[in-house]
Specification:
Strand order of the largest sheet: 2-1-3-4-5
Number of helices: 19
Structural class: alpha/beta
Number of strands: 12
CATH topology of the largest domain: Rossmann fold
Strand content: 5-15%
CATH superfamily of the largest domain: P-loop containing nucleotide triphosphate hydrolases
Largest sheet: 5 strands, parallel
CATH class of the largest domain: Alpha Beta
Distance between the termini: 35 Å
Radius of gyration: 30 Å
Shape: elongated
Length: 430
């Protein structure tokens, strides 16, 4: 059985941490002082240490330094009520595995502890190939793959459309790499050239050999569009083009040649937004995390993966790649937890909370309607209604604390006698 050392002078929080450790199958040992914690660590080996900075006899940072100086290899999770930049930097310098602020999010800490104790590994997709071509099992991506395969078997032009960040350039690279003429892909983007040099650079690109990718073809000035149309008629070079713009709208506004639209779109490949293929997020996240952290063998905790799958990803795969780089940079360990994710992604938890609150409101409304219209001699008063809700909540909480009122009282910061009295009033209580 793994063992967890808890060095925390707040009795209620220490008890809650001990319950969390037990629920993970670990044996907790608790000390309310730094010296007491060091003595316990000197007498036995531990698999993890939960360490408060604000201890009554010494700083938790001094305890951390002493533990590491003594050769303690157990990961240390630092907890503080008054976090400062100096504290965070010093904790990281001294070898802290993670840094948590009070009021403590027990779910995040428990996820971290679960990963360290490893009673079960976070569910992960199978390891990605070292250089996958494109990743996706969603129906929309399967249809895209069929077009990619067709494009690889021909020299016809290909028009690749999709929102920014969906992987249009990657798709073009895959087509070029796996076509009969596997020459390196040349890429031309009009906005990379000053107005006076764009046309000359474009003609130089058209005159080259091998496949040519024109990125964001909708941004080509009309004269260059005419040059491209003529080149396509000559059919001397394989042309691929990408665009994030709605070309029919551009055509209607006189900003894009209709004939060029048909010439480029002999084969048309549309890449779906990431929000339309959320089932691909785990595999993509796994690959992108591995790319961002070579040699670290990192995993994504299930709670963090749930946030990734729940995010709407307006920046598509490019945004997900940035999120994985961010998580890899801020995570000192090997398991990505919710608080390692960018704020834009982690805030999905708050949005999810709002949904739960709305669901609760609707459920309470339906329950009240039932209670208030059930008939009978009298309408239940407020205290009766509140007692019914409290009885349900206490029953649920007691079950979560394995039927141990003492632990529940500590977690709720409630007087034990008060809690026992309330529990005796539960329906079915002896």
């Amino acid at each position: 059985m793994p063992r967890v050392l808890i060095i925390e002078d707040d009795h209620a929080l220490a008890a809650a941490l001990a319950v969390a450790a037990r629920r993970l199958g670990a044996e907790p040992a608790v000390s309310a002082s730094g010296q007491g914690g060091l003595e316990k660590a000197g007498r036995a080996a531990f698999d993890a240490v939960l360490l408060d900075i604000g201890l009554p006899d010494m700083s938790g940072l001094r305890v951390l330094e002493t533990l590491k100086a003594r050769g303690c290899s157990a990961p240390v999770l630092v907890i503080t009520a008054h976090g400062t930049l100096d504290h965070a930097l010093e904790a990281r310098r001294l070898g802290a595995h993670e840094y948590f602020l009070k009021p403590l999010n027990l779910a995040d800490l428990q996820s971290c502890l679960r990963a360290l104790l490893k009673p079960d590994k976070p569910q992960q997709p199978a390891p990605a190939a070292p250089r996958p071509l494109m990743i996706g099992s969603a129906p929309a991506m399967q249809r895209a793959f069929a077009v990619v395969a067709q494009a690889c078997a021909t020299r016809e032009p290909v028009l690749i459309t999709g929102a920014p960040g969906t992987g249009k350039t990657l798709a073009a690279e895959v087509i070029a790499r796996h076509s009969a003429d596997s020459s390196p892909l040349k890429i031309f983007r009009c906005d990379e050239w000053p107005d006076g040099k764009a046309r000359a650079a474009f003609h130089e690109a058209l005159a080259g050999e091998g496949p040519l990718l024109i990125e964001e073809a909708a941004s080509l000035p009309l004269p260059l569009q005419g040059d491209l149309s003529a080149a396509l008629q000559e059919n001397t070079r394989r042309i691929l083009a990408t665009t994030s713009a709605d070309l029919p709208v551009k055509i209607a506004a006189g900003l894009f040649r209709e004939d060029l639209h048909y010439q480029l779109g002999v084969l048309r490949l549309r890449l779906p937004p990431l929000s339309a293929r959320t089932e691909d997020v785990p595999a993509l996240a796994s690959y992108l995390l591995a790319s961002a952290s070579p040699g670290r063998d990192m995993l994504v905790d299930p709670a963090a993966m749930s946030l990734l799958k729940g995010h709407d990803w307006p920046g598509n795969v490019r945004e997900l790649a940035g999120a994985m780089r961010h998580a890899s940079a801020v995570c000192a360990g090997t398991v990505i937890l919710p608080h390692h994710l960018p704020e834009s992604v982690a805030s999905a938890r708050a949005a999810g909370g709002a949904v739960l609150e709305e669901n609760l409101r609707q459920a309470l409304t339906a329950w009240l309607d039932q209670r208030l219209t059930a008939g009978g001699e009298s309408t239940p008063d407020y205290d009766t209604l509140l007692a019914d809700i409290e009885h349900w909540m206490l029953s649920e909480l007691l079950e979560r604390h394995e039927g141990r009122p003492t632990h529940l009282a500590a977690a709720l910061r409630m007087n034990r006698a008060t809690l026992r009295k309330k529990l005796r009033e539960l329906p079915g209580a002896d």
